[in-house]
Design goal:
- The chain is 71% helix and 0% strand.
- It is mainly α.
- It is elongated and about 75 Å long.
Amino acid sequence: MNLDPKKIKELITLYSELDDEYQEELFSKAKVLAIKQTQKNQILKSKEKFKTKKDLDKKIDEKTSRRLEEVKEMLYIYDSKMNDSQRAEIVALLDKLTDGGLTEKTDIEITINHKNVDLIEYLEEQFPDVNVKEANKNANRLLKEFYNN
């Protein structure tokens, strides 16, 4: 698992700015990317050689498309042709075939704190080599000139 706290924070911030429709679109794209990542990992693990990155990407896309079609077909069978007993057997079998991967859980806790910070402190953090008090003073002067004209 690749967790970069700054990227996670940015992703959550972007997500929170989306309405329900776009949040669903983002999830849909993320699911496809997760499948693509799995296919890429399998291809790289197989040590198959590619002349260019474009060739590798094409192979990833082909495998992903094929896998998505297989998943759709399996879900159709699972949903429409199996009873609960059969579904339970399939889930148990898949868990055993993946060495417990199906029932493996990762807990991630995310705490979101929102507050306004002091402008001078913020500027000092963002621009450590700048005289931020002078920058703030100049910003005040510019605003005053703008409103007086």
